[in-house]
Specification:
By secondary structure, the protein is an alpha+beta fold. The chain has 3 helices and 5 strands. The protein has helices spanning about 1-10, 10-15, 80-85, and strands spanning about 15-25, 30-40, 40-55, 70-80, 95-100. It has a 5-stranded antiparallel sheet. A hairpin with a 2-residue loop joins strand 2 and strand 3 (about 40-55).
Amino acid sequence: MGLALAEEFGHRFTSSAHSIECGKRISRTILRCDVYFHFHDRVWNGRGRIWRGTCNGSNGITKNRNHVCWFANWRLKRFDERCYYEQHHSIEYCTKLVVHH
């Protein structure tokens, strides 16, 4: 999960204070993860899933169909603290849903 988040968010994730706990097994090949990271004045938190499957040439680490690849998706809420505390907007205005399928 950490590698997928680092690939998607780059420096915002790798330089952040972050925690990922993938402790809930949904099925034999799927794990649920609780995700939190904080970078400057933005906080992302929510849940994601990682699972393994056969690579099909897209979204995997290799084009060879015989290799097992890990995949990830997530639903995170991004809260902009500066928007809320300094600009005095509502929590709803300063929160954005970030979905990766």
